[in-house]
Amino acid sequence: MSTRSKLLTWGLPLVGLACLGAGATFVVQNRPVASEEVPPRQPTTAPSEAQAIDAARFIGALGVSEPPGEASALAAHTSGVVTQVRAAVGESVRVGQPLFVIESSRARADVALRASEVQVAERELASMRATVPPLRAAVLSAQASLSAAQADVLVAEADLADRLNKLSIAESVSDPRAIAKEEVDARRFAVAQAEARVATARAAVERSAASVTQANAELARFSIAETAADGPELLAVAARVEQARSALARAQADLDLLTVRSPIDGRVLQVNIRPGEFAPASVPSEGLVVLGRSGRVHLRVEIDEVDIPRFVTGARAWASPRGDARTRLPLRLVTLEPLIVPKRNLSGRTSELIDTRVLQVVYALDQSFTSQGIGQQFDVYIEAADVTSAADAEGRS
């Protein structure tokens, strides 16, 4: 009994210790060995070793590269199906160079129609101008007829006066035997005939005057006699010619709007349209064709609102491309946009707030920097103003 009790008392603990040691040895020998992992990008570092000691001496921000003056995302002036794309990515373009063309058969037909309307109106105007010389000749003819009629009146009046004189002489003879009664009657009848001729001549003058008035009125419809300027008829036709020309210019403008041209001298950064695709007239989010001006690459930096009080426009600034923390590029301030806007570019920090408002500052990268594309992200460092020291000094004063 005692022997069994000692075996149980000392044997079981020894077995337990042996099993524990064997288990520990097994765990140690079979634990997984983690290999060293390379980070997806090099961690962000301070612009210098001295500033790495005190992060409050600089402002850390995120910047995105862009062409000078920002990229231009172009849209179509008029919606339609694209028939030609003349822009190629990376190609240099000049102002007015065609980039893509929208289907224009209907617009070309409208231009041809408006051009024919202009020709018809111009020929009508030329035809009406050709009637002015005959009308002027008609006025001169009517005036000549009036002058001839007035001369006939003078002749008739002179003849009447002569016959009245002869009648007066015959009637003044007191002796009836000196002149025959038939002679007196003949002279009286001759006076009546002369008076009729005078009346006829005067009526001819009235008719000629009416003809002159009518000819002048007909001429006045096409030309003003005093100044030789165009009359109302020619002015109306000339207005129709100008109206037709304006319609032609509008149709030509509509046709020109179907060809989207470059508004700047620069380079094609992106083409998002192909022949056969529908181009909307509204501006798409990415632009049908994206252009950028040539020159030094700019960097649009977003400074968080909590760092704005420490920002100084004349402070030195550096930038490091994402994935290349060892490269530090000096920056030159180009412009500062005073409007504080909501933050768009996120740095990826776990403590970052997405409702932060930022101050956008545009810097120019060093000319020695070359990049394969636009839109690359940079870690930016800006020397900060010592706000706490200024506040302490103000408090002491």
Walk me through the structure.
- The chain is rod-shaped.
- The protein starts with a helix and ends with a helix.
- Mean pLDDT is 83; it is low at 388-397.
- With 397 residues, the chain is of the alpha+beta class.
- The longest helix is centred in the middle third of the chain and has 41 residues, at 132-172.
- Among the domains are: 49-68 and 295-391, Elongation Factor Tu (Ef-tu), domain 3 (Beta Barrel); 84-102 and 258-292, RNA polymerase II/Efflux pump adaptor protein, barrel-sandwich hybrid domain (OB fold (Dihydrolipoamide Acetyltransferase, E2P), Beta Barrel); 132-221, Orthogonal Bundle (Helix Hairpins), CATH 1.10.287.
- It has 7 helices and 15 strands.
- The protein has helices at residues 2-30, 49-53, 105-130, 132-172, 181-220, 232-257, 387-396; strands at residues 58-66, 72-74, 80-85, 92-93, 98-102, 259-261, 266-271, 278-279, 289-293, 298-304, 317-321, 329-330, 332-342, 357-364, 377-383.
- Helix 3 (105-130) runs antiparallel to helix 6 and helix 4 runs antiparallel to helix 5 (181-220).
- The strands form 3 sheets. The protein has a 7-stranded antiparallel sheet with strand order 12-11-15-1-10-14-13, with no helix packed on it.
- 45% of the residues lie in helices and 20% in strands.
- 19% of the residues are buried.
